[in-house]
Design a protein that fits this description.
The chain has a domain at 4-77 and 134-146 and 165-228: Rossmann fold (3-Layer(aba) Sandwich), CATH 3.40.50.300. Helices cover 30% and strands 26% of the residues. The protein has helices spanning 44-51, 69-72, 93-97, 117-129, 148-163, 175-178, 198-201, 209-221, 225-228; strands spanning 4-15, 18-29, 33-37, 57-64, 78-81, 136-140, 167-172, 184-188, 193-197. Strands 5-6-7-3-8-9 form a six-stranded mixed sheet, sandwiched between helices. It has a three-stranded antiparallel sheet with strand order 2-1-4, covered by helices on one side. Helix 5 links the parallel strand 6 (136-140) and strand 7 (167-172). It is globular and about 55 Å long.
């Protein structure tokens, strides 16, 4: 893996009079996955929107293949999904599901707004992830509303996209969703963003939900914990 696909440098974003997050920096190469974790209101959704140019930075910048998002996304096949609430409720599910690929991902002819939440979420994910090839995948809380079978499908699909060379950014408020599928973990905290490689959390790179929770609890109680992990917290 040598291709730097996503570079974020000192990124700070403000929403209204409130600072959503500040000082986020990371690199993501083709074939790598980044998990974004944090409490409600930590800025996860704002960060992912900023990555695709939906929010303007007050400091720092984002580069996708060396270009600003507004110029890069037309050249870089990207899947971005911010949840079932962002789907157009008036559209018919079958018609929406065929966008991008020309293939019908669901035979459902009802309007999207009449579908159960879980069906809307899965429709959006299948539509975005069904396009190929994909160089960049950015998903905001994609496990929300999914049943166990759909969650397993999502995990397998994200791993397959990553293994085929896509860079993946995925957020969740539930650490167990992110555990084990990411190469890097970004924790958005009130004092600073903290970035870990999987090997920093577990020397073998096998990050389970308990281990990820331990890191999250440690850095919330003591900001300096990031400097001593994992030496001070052996498995």
């Amino acid at each position: 893996m040598t291709d730097l696909l996503l570079a974020v440098r000192g990124l700070s974003v403000q929403q209204g009079h409130r600072q959503a997050f500040r000082g986020v920096s990371f690199d993501l190469r083709a074939g790598q996955a980044l998990g974004v974790a944090g409490a409600n209101g930590a800025g996860k959704s704002a960060l992912l929107r900023a990555l695709v140019g939906g929010l303007r930075a007050v400091e720092g910048d984002v580069r996708i293949n060396g270009r600003l998002p507004t110029h890069a996304l037309s050249r870089t096949p990207t899947a971005y999904f911010a949840g079932e609430a962002t789907l157009p409720g008036f559209a018919r599910a079958a018609a929406w599901g065929s966008l991008g690929t020309g293939e019908v991902v669901t035979p459902e002819r009802r309007r999207i707004r009449t579908l159960p939440r879980s069906a809307r979420q899965l429709l959006g994910l299948r539509t975005e992830l069904g396009r190929h090839p994909l160089a960049l995948v950015i998903l905001d809380e994609p496990w929300e509303g999914l049943d166990p079978d759909a969650a397993r499908w999502l995990n397998a699909t994200l791993e397959a996209k990553r293994d085929r060379g896509a860079a993946v950014v995925v957020s969740s408020r539930r650490l167990e969703d992110l555990a084990g599928i990411c190469d890097k973990y970004l924790f958005l905290t009130p004092y600073a963003p903290l970035l870990f490689n999987a090997q920093q959390i577990d020397p073998q790179g096998r990050v389970d939900a308990r281990r990820l929770s331990d890191v999250f609890d440690a850095i919330r109680s003591d900001p300096t914990a990031a400097l001593t992990w994992p030496r001070a917290h052996p498995p």
